[in-house]
Design goal:
4-stranded antiparallel sheet, alpha+beta, two-stranded antiparallel sheet, 6 strands, NADH Oxidase
């Protein structure tokens, strides 16, 4: 049997049932952003940028309004809403792999949320052009994902049709389908493959 990942990685998931009374402190948000800041990036270009909206702020309300209806239905209970953006150019020109760098930084941010006792749910269901307009993003900055951060609440907070998905066991493809050696499709396996 393959080794298990670090407990922090194993504990990360993307719930929607967030406690409406749960607090995401400014200190936790700063530690999450600091974790993102230390991510690797192509040529140390550090292309990640974040819009940060703690619950109760104008930024939170504006980000929430730009989520699709399905995400608004649960994300309004988040302690903070963020938007991860890629700065795709700098003084030297186009930044290669900017989106990849934002992905690395955002995973750091999410894992730090888990370390803080919080949960985070990344979303593609938002109006990216609307974010760019609403927040005055430069032309080179692309919104990539919205992120709800909060305190885990009971599944009963969700409509009945969403509860089953919330409580279903997490599934991942086996390594035999994702890690290859020698030739594409030849599994890199614990038994020497």
């Amino acid at each position: 049997m393959p080794s298990e990942p670090h407990e922090l990685i194993g504990a990360r998931w993307s719930p929607r049932a967030l406690d409406p009374a749960g607090v995401v402190s400014r200190e936790s948000l700063l530690r999450m952003l600091e974790a993102a800041r230390w991510a690797p990036s192509y040529g140390n270009t550090q292309p990640w940028r974040y819009l940060v909206g703690p619950r109760g702020s104008d930024t939170f309300d504006r980000v929430l309004a730009l989520l699709n209806m399905g995400n608004q239905a649960w994300a309004h209970r988040a302690g903070a809403l963020l938007v991860a953006c890629a700065d795709t150019a700098n003084a030297k020109g186009a930044v290669p792999y900017a989106e990849y760098g934002v992905g690395l930084a955002t995973e750091n941010l999410v894992l730090q949320a888990v370390a803080e006792g919080l949960v985070a749910h990344q979303m593609a269901g938002f109006d990216a052009p609307g974010v760019a307009r609403e927040f005055g993003l430069p032309e080179t900055v692309r919104p990539l994902a919205a992120i709800a951060v909060g305190v885990l609440g009971p599944p009963s907070l969700l409509p009945e049709d969403r509860r089953a998905r919330e409580t279903a066991p997490r599934k991942r493809l086996p390594l035999t389908e994702t890690a290859f050696t020698g030739q594409w499709g030849t599994a890199f396996s614990p038994d020497g493959g």
